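Design job #97: recover the sequence.
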């Protein structure tokens, strides 16, 4: 396999550190960064750190755990069961407050382990989005190698495939808090409803799915080409029955689909 130039540059960058901690979610970017770090400095010098918070579905946590195990790197899971007060009512800059808490905990754990740097998986495409969490990452001096080396999501997927990583074609994912309208309260029972609903769709084979929560109403966002499948019998009735059993009263489909 011919190693792409940008991948060589990434490995070279990582090698300046004797050990690294990777803020690890199990998504496309952090999995690639974790694998690249292992390739660069060896598994004994790489630690994955995951925050187990109410915003993280159980199935995502389990997948992250399995991938880290298969990569052969140390994996630490820090549990945070709280929905912080400055997050609970879902302000527009919610992500800033979340990242401040989560990366603060990861940095503290890395410090205890004597690890000199924490990496995060922000990439070049993130510069084009509204990401208040990026401000917190910068303030805490977390290092974003993929962003620094201008690696795009498409390139990360390409290199992940070359490395035979199972996440190379994993759909983009955002935390469960993003399923709620800004300036509305995020309740633990609603997070559970959303998690169960999205897991239901994933198990039905719909990989790109968002179930937006508007109190007792579920608004389903799915690929436009798949909308006809979920509004047709008998699947429509099955979806309605499942989501009502999870705690929703009303089930709707966004006619514009996932976006």
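Job complete. Output follows.
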């Amino acid at each position: 396999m011919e190693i792409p130039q940008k991948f060589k540059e990434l490995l070279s960058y990582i090698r300046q550190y004797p050990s690294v901690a990777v803020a690890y979610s199990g998504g496309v970017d952090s999995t690639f960064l974790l694998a690249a770090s292992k390739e660069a400095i060896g598994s004994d010098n790489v630690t994955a750190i995951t925050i187990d918070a109410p915003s993280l579905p159980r199935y995502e946590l389990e997948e992250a755990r399995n991938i880290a195990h298969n990569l052969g790197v140390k994996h630490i899971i820090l549990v945070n069961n709280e929905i912080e007060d400055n997050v609970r009512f879902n302000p527009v800059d919610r992500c800033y407050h979340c990242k401040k808490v989560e990366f603060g905990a990861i940095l503290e754990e890395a410090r205890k382990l004597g690890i000199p740097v924490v990496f995060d998986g922000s990439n070049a495409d993130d510069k084009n989005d509204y990401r208040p969490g990026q401000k917190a990452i910068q303030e805490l001096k977390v290092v974003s190698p993929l962003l620094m080396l201008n690696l795009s999501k498409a390139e990360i997927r390409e290199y992940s495939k070359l490395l035979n990583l199972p996440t190379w074609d994993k759909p983009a994912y955002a935390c469960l808090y993003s399923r709620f309208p800004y300036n509305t309260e995020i309740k633990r029972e609603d997070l559970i409803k959303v998690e169960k609903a999205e897991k239901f769709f994933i198990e039905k084979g719909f990989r790109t799915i968002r179930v937006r929560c508007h109190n007792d109403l579920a608004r389903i966002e799915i690929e436009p080409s798949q909308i006809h499948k979920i509004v047709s019998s008998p699947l429509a009735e099955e979806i309605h029955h499942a989501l009502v059993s999870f705690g929703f009263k009303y089930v709707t489909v966004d006619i514009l689909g996932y976006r």
